[in-house]
Amino acid sequence: MSLRQRCPGLTPWPGRYGRLESTTPPITVPAWTALVTGKDPGQLGCYGFRNRSTHGYDDLFFANASTVREPTLWNVLSRHRKRCIILNVPQTYPPSRSTESWTAAF
What we know:
single chain, alpha+beta, two-stranded antiparallel ribbon, two-stranded parallel ribbon, 4 helices, 4 strands, globular
C-alpha cells in the first residue's frame, strides 16, 4: 500500500475548507494524539494527562508516548523512508527510535 493510499489526508485539497472540531474531550493529550494517529480517544484509550489503569480511582498513571499503541504520522512516514522532525508535540516522551530528530514534550 502506498503512502498516498495509507494517508489520504496528506494529498492537497485546493479551495476546500470547513469547520474544524476537536476531540471529545477537547483536552491537549487526546486531541494531539488523535491528530497524529487518526484515531479517536475511545479507540486510543487516552482521555487526558492522567488515565486510569483499572476502573477505580486509585490507579492513575500519566499518559506518555509509550501508552500510544497506534502508529503515528511519523511512524508511517518513517516506514516509507521519509525524514521526520518532531517539535513540541505533546505526549511524545519517551521518543521513538523511528524518527531522526525530536524535541519531545511531556
